[in-house]
Amino acid sequence: MVKRCAWCEGDELYTKYHDTEWGKLVTCDKKMFEFLTLESAQAGLSWITVLRKRENYRKAFAGFDVKKIAKFDDADVSRLLANEGIVRNRLKIHAAISNAKLFMEVQKEFGSFCDYIKTFFPDGVPKINRPKTMADIPASDEISDAIAKDMKKRGFKFFGTTICYAHLQATGYINDHLVGCDFK
Fold first, then answer.
1. Count of the separate structural domains present in the chain
2. Given this model, what pLDDT does residue 44 score?
3. How much is the pTM?
């Protein structure tokens, strides 16, 4: 019998996400931007809500092509606001477009967004936690605090420390699979 983190049990989409993506190190900027956009859209909602809309986001947001999204205009915003397949929040849509522009600035400065994220980790090495229960997993830590603070200073929106921590978990920079999870 496969052992998994408790949060993913009972929903096939969650289980697949847990088993194939969550906590696996992302080294591709396109995937990093996808998670950044989805995590920002998730603010105030459950992750499963956004996960169920993920394919709609891929179509609506040009396959998460950061260069294309950075060029979105008022017509694109109107199109997105009319799209029932995504979270239709004007502020979050504008944030995704603005964050795309800022994401490219970070890439220019650091070579890649992934390289930027690594600067916050000792020796650029992802952090492996050993939580025994879901209660042992924090909502944020000193690393997510520092990244969120820096990104806010750079102008990123909808990316506070809690969302940042979830982003780091999703992209494998913080491994919070429970002790005993076969995917640790």
1. 1
2. 87
3. 0.95
